[in-house]
């Protein structure tokens, strides 16, 4: 919504209208609740000095990505109604292109640097540069992008500015900041502090975690690690917040994204703000989780700020080796049996995945609902240096859930899988299939490899022979834990019968 300046002039000259210039806000910092879906709810306070009749109220304490129809202006005590007759929002902040368009057809000065020093030349703006956007004809065909400027200097035309444009200081209609204007009708003269709340784009946040495990490795796979969590906050709203109280909402909140073109911002990464003891608290809010930084921070436009919110020591990390020799197999879901002898044999996977498990519980020195984000793992070398050993992402993880992080494939542990028997009895409605899975381990210590097998030929199956015990993962998955000796190998065999 753009504010029409002639209308503003008429309102300002209307009898009984009282124009209040933008006053400093309350000493209370702006409150921001940032969602991890590129928007935030901003709450601030305005000192309203109203006279009886029509009042014109203006504030520039808003962002350039504000959603105008989300604005709420109210008395936080709920004792005074705020009668808003009209609201206008203008995010058209003055910039060079805006001024060049305003002076299109006029002659202005340009500052030019020459070997002899700085000089001033005059040029007529025949055509100002248009806003950067692609243009299409009526049939949807691309016909060009933004127009270049066309300047006349000394009777000749050129497609670039001759220098730095110098505009008259008395230019009308300048907007240095995004501006909200209201017409407010008041029955009497009164002064009170009003709460201004609105939804704005340009904010985002995400969680990142670092896990550091020691050099030594327990042969059982249990390790004690340091677990540190950070929140990274991005402000591309076009507005600076010298003082802000920040909360972070974690969860999948339904939000219809407004239709706007995102502005390009240069991100400036600040030094991480490390606190002696993390003071971030969290609580359940509706069906989501709300994290409160519990302090005032400065959040500049274009800034990426990091705040530590979790620091735990002695967290148990369980390392698992998982071999899935037919990971890409697709299930057979109809009422018959897949009788293709080569079904599920074309994977050729030899890699053994490394999967780290971490219980998010108080007993494991965690127990805080963890927002979705990236987890990086580091291990200390014998010289004390930390080396990066893999990363994964997690979804929003409640308390008592287990994190499962796939951090790579083992170098010294390999697997192979082959079919050893296949037989179909059409009269008996049975299909028998046998497999051999071989595991090799070149590490200096034994490892346990969980062999995952998918029984996807049909719904009805039974394991008729096996060289090792298994557990059932789901209706089509079984898992065999196999101990593989150091510098050795181990072989698993099993047979399955499908019936229909």
Instruction: Summarize the amount of helix as a percent range.
Output: under 10%
Task: Specify the structural class.
Answer: mainly beta
Oligomerization state of this entry? single chain
Domains, number = 3
Biggest sheet layout: 14 strands, mixed
Radius of gyration: 33 Å
Strand content: over 45%
CATH architecture of the largest domain: Sandwich
CATH fold field value of the largest domain: Immunoglobulin-like
Distance between the termini: 66 Å
Q: Total strand count, please?
A: 32
Low-confidence regions = 1-21, 133-140, 260-278
Contiguous helical run count = 2
Rounded mean pLDDT is 82
| Shape assignment | elongated
Q: Which CATH top level class of the largest domain fits?
A: Mainly Beta
Layout: helices, strands, pairs:
Blueprint: H1 5-12, E1 17-20, E2 30-35, E3 39-50, E4 53-59, E5 72-74, E6 83-90, H2 96-102, E7 107-114, E8 117-127, E9 135-136, E10 142-144, E11 150-153, E12 156-158, E13 164-166, E14 179-186, E15 190-201, E16 203-213, E17 222-235, E18 241-250, E19 268-269, E20 281-285, E21 288-299, E22 303-324, E23 351-359, E24 373-380, E25 386-394, E26 402-425, E27 430-441, E28 447-454, E29 461-466, E30 471-474, E31 477-484, E32 488-499
Parallel strand pairs: 1-4, 2-18, 16-24, 19-22, 22-28
Antiparallel strand pairs: 2-3, 3-15, 4-14, 5-15, 6-14, 7-8, 7-13, 8-11, 9-10, 11-12, 16-17, 17-22, 18-21, 20-21, 22-23, 23-26, 24-25, 26-27, 27-32, 28-31, 29-32, 30-31
């Amino acid at each position: 919504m753009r504010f029409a300046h002639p209308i503003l002039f008429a309102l300002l000259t209307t009898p009984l209208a009282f124009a209040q210039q933008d006053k400093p806000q309350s000493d209370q910092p702006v409150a921001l609740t940032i969602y991890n879906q590129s928007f935030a709810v901003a709450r601030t306070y305005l000192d309203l000095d109203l006279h009886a009749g029509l009042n014109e109220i203006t504030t520039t304490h808003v962002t350039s990505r504000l959603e105008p129809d989300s604005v709420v202006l109210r008395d936080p005590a709920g004792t005074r109604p705020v009668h808003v007759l009209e609201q206008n929002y203008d995010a058209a902040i003055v910039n060079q292109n805006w001024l060049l368009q305003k002076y299109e057809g006029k002659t202005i000065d340009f500052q030019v640097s020459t070997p002899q020093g700085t000089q001033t030349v005059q040029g007529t703006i025949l055509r100002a540069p248009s806003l950067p956007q692609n243009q299409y004809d009526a049939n949807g065909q691309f016909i060009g992008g933004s127009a270049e400027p066309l300047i006349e200097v000394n009777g000749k035309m050129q497609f670039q500015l001759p220098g730095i444009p110098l505009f008259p200081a008395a230019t009308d209609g300048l907007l240095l900041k995004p501006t909200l204007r209201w017409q407010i009708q008041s029955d009497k003269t009164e002064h009170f502090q009003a709460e201004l709340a609105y939804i704005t784009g340009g904010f985002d946040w995400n969680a990142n975690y670092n896990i550091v495990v020691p050099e030594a490795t327990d042969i059982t796979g249990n390790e004690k690690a340091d677990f540190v969590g950070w929140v990274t906050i991005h402000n591309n709203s076009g507005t600076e917040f010298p003082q802000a109280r920040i909360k972070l909402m974690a969860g999948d909140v339904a939000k219809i994204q407004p239709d706007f073109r995102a502005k390009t911002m240069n991100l400036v990464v600040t030094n991480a703000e490390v606190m002696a003891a993390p003071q971030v608290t969290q609580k359940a809010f509706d069906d989501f989780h709300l994290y409160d930084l519990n302090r005032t921070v400065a959040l500049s436009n274009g800034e990426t700020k990091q705040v530590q919110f979790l620091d735990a020591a002695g967290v148990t990390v369980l390392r698992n080796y998982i071999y899935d020799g037919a990971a890409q197999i697709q299930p057979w879901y109809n009422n018959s049996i897949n009788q293709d002898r080569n079904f599920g044999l074309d994977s050729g996977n030899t890699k053994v995945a490394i999967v780290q498990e971490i219980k998010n519980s108080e007993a494991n020195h965690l127990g805080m609902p963890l927002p979705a984000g990236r987890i990086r793992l580091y291990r200390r070398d014998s010289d004390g240096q930390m080396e990066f050993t893999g990363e994964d992402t997690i979804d929003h993880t409640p308390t008592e859930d287990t994190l499962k992080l796939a951090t790579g494939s083992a170098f010294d542990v390999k697997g192979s899988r082959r079919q050893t028997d296949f037989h179909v009895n059409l009269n008996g409605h049975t299909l028998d299939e046998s497999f051999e899975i071989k595991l090799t381990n070149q590490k200096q210590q034994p490892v346990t490899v969980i062999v995952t097998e998918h029984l996807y030929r049909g719904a009805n199956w039974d394991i008729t022979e096996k060289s090792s015990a298994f557990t059932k993962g789901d209706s089509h998955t079984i898992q065999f834990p196999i101990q593989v000796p150091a510098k050795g190998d181990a072989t698993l065999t099993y047979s399955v019968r499908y019936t229909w």
